[in-house]
Amino acid sequence: MVAGEAEEMTEGLAFLLARHGAGAQMMLRRALVSSGLTPRHMMTLKHLDTGPVSQQALVDMLEVDPSVLVAVLNDLERDELALRRRDPADRRRHIVEITPAGAAVLRRSDEILAEAEGELFTHLSPAEQLLLRDLLNRINVSPDQFTCTED
Questions:
Q1: Is residue 2 part of a domain?
Q2: Contact partners, residue 116, CB within 8 Å, separation at least 6
Q3: What SUPFAM superfamilies is this protein classified in (predicted)?
Q4: pTM assigned to the model
Q5: CB–CB of 38/76 below 8 Å?
Q6: In angstroms, rounded to a whole number, what is the distance separating the alpha carbons of residues 108 and 147?
């Protein structure tokens, strides 16, 4: 065991996860700069890419405060990447959908991120990456435990 590994073994698991998460977040942001998207913009477009959805359903999917989603949608609409319209069946609801330009930006961003993730996880086999995904999905963190108001 080398010095760095010994240090990580004594570091609390939550701190280790937070440190690596912060590094991954920075990698995501840097990779997305050329597309003009933030990670939150990209995740919103990914959810919209499956088809139109109500604004409230999008809040639930992204697990964000409604005011945060409004700001994200304002950005996406300004850049003509998404469109909000009233639901004809219930004029109180907004339906949000991705535009063709938004779909094109999302495809390019997916390619950029695939390359960046390849570098980030270069030392993990595909099986280890699947295991990491499974373990991260099983961590007991609920959106009710924090207020997500930032990117």
A1: no
A2: 27, 28, 30, 31
A3: Winged helix' DNA-binding domain
A4: 0.78
A5: no
A6: 31
How far is the C-alpha of 37 from the C-alpha of 116, rounded, in Å? 15
> Residue 104: pLDDT above 60?
yes
| Mean per-residue pLDDT, 99-113 | 96
Judged on CB neighbours under 10 Å (0-12, 13-18, 19+), 53 is middle
Q: Measured between alpha carbons, how far is residue 48 from residues 10, 62, 89, 100 in Å?
A: 42, 11, 20, 11
Judge whether 35 lies within some domain: no
Count of the separate structural domains present in the chain: 1
Query: H helices within 63-125, ranges in order?
Result: 66-78, 100-120
The CATH number that applies at residue 48 is 1.10.10.10
Alpha carbon 24 to its chain centroid, in Å, reads 11
Say how far residue 59 (Cα) sits from the centre of its chain: 13
Q: Say if residues 93 and 87 touch (Cβ distance below 8 Å).
A: yes
Contact 68, 148 (CB under 8 A): yes
State residue 41 phi and psi, 5-degree precision.
Answer: -60, -45
